[in-house]
Amino acid sequence: MPNRCNSGVQAQSRSRFFEGKVRLVIAKSAGFCFGVKRAMDIAGEAAQKYPKDLYTLGPLIHNPQAVELLMKLGVKVKDRIEHIPRGTVIFRSHGVFLKDLMKAREKRLRIIDATCPIVKRAQFYANYLHRHGYDLLIVGDSEHPEVEAIRSYIQKRVDVVEDAEAAQKLGPWTKLGIVAQTTQTFSRFKEIVAVCLERTKELRVFNTICHATTLRQMEAVEIAKKVDCMIVIGGYNSGNTQRLASICRESQPHTYHIETAQELHPRWLARREKVGLTAGASTPSWIIKEVALRIRHLKHPRS
Ligand code: SF4
Prior knowledge:
The chain is α/β, with parallel strands linked by helices. The chain contains eleven helices and 13 strands. It has helices at 8-11, 34-49, 64-72, 98-106, 117-131, 145-152, 164-168, 186-197, 211-226, 239-251, 285-297, and strands at 17-18, 23-26, 54-57, 76-78, 88-91, 110-113, 135-139, 158-161, 173-180, 200-205, 229-233, 255-258, 274-279. α5 runs parallel beside α6 (145-152) and α9 (211-226) runs parallel beside α10. It is flat and about 60 Å long. The structure holds iron/sulfur cluster. The site of iron/sulfur cluster has 14 residues, from α2, α5 and α9.
């Protein structure tokens, strides 16, 4: 696996300031999280071991540039298990739907499971609550593959809500269990739990939010408050990057979400003295470095 697949966390080991036309503050948590780095490493090793007929079910991570790199290594993307004729399938860090797991077994595909252990923990608690007779509520995005995967293992109705207002419309319950999509914000999770507490006799809550996500969000907000422009890098299809950008925007209205360095517009940096930089959990370190370099070398217009 080439070095550019390696974690961005290591490369950005501390917040840094670049003296130039603008001062640049890079979040130390920017870039690959543990689960994404693990999935990329697993795919890289698989590409060496099983170079023929190697597939991921859906893009391995929510970053088109990283997926493109994997394709160059021979890792093909198929959206449906039916489209994988033979060979090896890698399940991505978000987890796999029960029906796809069953089909992969039926087809006797070699299975490599790159589900993040923290996502597995959320799956475990959802099943635990279900087995113990609780109605289940997931705090998250109902269309996100991680949430859909959790739901697929529960043979009962599972409600999914993204905000307290939606939770108000549900229930009442007798026994309610709550878990969160791993990349949710803790403040929103707390608000929803508070609403549900008033609508059920018994409540069991497992905080399944990923610590890495919480830290990344907290650090991003701290930086956003101190700079006069914030750049958030990551796939447009990455939920955690979108959330990161929206959290930053609350503190710093001049927040811009980009996927690559080429998208950075010099006008955004006009009259800005201090620029903050963070990136979603699936953003490779080489893209972060390219953006940082471009910011340093851009000619910043006066207005
Ligand atoms: S954000 Fe957390 S839960 Fe999601 S893949 Fe990364 S480490 Fe795992």
